[in-house]
Write a structure and sequence with these properties.
The chain is of the alpha+beta class. The protein has helices at residues 2-19, 44-54; strands spanning 25-30, 33-38. The mean pLDDT is 88.
Length: 70
């Protein structure tokens, strides 16, 4: 099914990121939408700084900051 394919792709992508050294990668269900996320930051400024450092990496060239209340 399509959901199984999506879940498999998310798991593969998450593992690929971990294999590249991005250990803090996880899959979350955010308001009914499944996201592959990296990192957790105390402020938007910290998240923005981390994102700028990751942008040159091919895995993060289309990344954005997502606020998730946990």
């Amino acid at each position: 099914s399509n959901k199984t394919t999506t879940t498999t792709l998310q798991a593969l992508f998450t593992q690929a990121l971990k294999d590249q050294g991005y250990e803090d990668t996880r899959v979350v269900d955010h308001q009914g939408s499944i996201k592959v996320v990296y990192g957790s930051y105390d402020s938007k400024a910290q998240a923005r700084e981390a994102l700028q450092g990751m942008k040159p990496d091919r895995y993060f060239n289309t990344a954005w900051i997502l606020n998730i209340e946990e």
